[in-house]
Design a protein that fits this description.
This protein has about 280 residues and is mainly α. It has 3 domains: about 1-120, Four Helix Bundle (Hemerythrin (Met), subunit A), CATH 1.20.120; about 125-180; about 205-280, Arc Repressor Mutant, subunit A. The protein contains 15 helices and no strands. It starts with a helix and ends with a helix.
Amino acid sequence: MSKELATAVLPTGSMESYVTAAFQLPMLTQEEEHDLAVRWRDHQDLEAARQLVLSHLRFVVRIARQYAGYGLPQPDLIQEGTIGLMKAVRRFDPDMGVRLASFAVHWIKAEIHEFILRNWRIVKIATTKAQRKLFFNLRSSKKRLGWFTEQEIQEVAEDLGVKPEEVRAMEARLNNYDMALEPATGDEEEEHLAPISYLPDMRMEPSNLVEAEDTERDEHERLYEAMAELDERSKEVLRRRWLSEKKSTLHELAEEYGVSAERIRQIEKAAMKKLQARMAA
């Protein structure tokens, strides 16, 4: 069977084909698994590690399917589970007396759990170890749709060894959902209900208008002061290149001043650098 694994190539581009191929890969006997694990542990044989991973991909798929109800893409869950499997292979000791599948379950689930907690909501829903345990167990503890009754809260708190307040807080987080600030559909009714529709327009607020006018006035003064510090040629180049209604090209200015277009570009660049430094001061 190891020879089949050594030449196995999983398909790409189709999740269905990948899963089908994963279940068609041969499983290892205990002796084959032990030999491969020893080769990896003692000699860092990458081919041995590869065969160990390939032969256990079906377990990753089975575990990932258990988390289909979280609304996250199945390929992503399988990918994260595979990362967990590779971590398990790296740490597996063939002399412990257990099969790799049993040892790897923890690592596979741990990576999937981390991925779910990072991506299930925009705001991270669980940060402590107790909250993570409550998050995953609370979903499986629900006996009906909707909110828990007080009795159910007490029962879940007792089963999981947490306070009823923690169960209520986590249930509230689970029942909330993310909403886009602005709708992307173009639906007028949805646009009216979007959160951005309820934000006040502060653009015409007197203090903001005064602040904007002061900022604009200050920027103009800084610009005039910075321009006054330039030599006449630099001023003229900037004026003709940026401030005139009909802007001059580098070659036109070069012909007038009797220099190369590259020299005009250097003068322009140096003048702009001085302006920027003066405006930022």
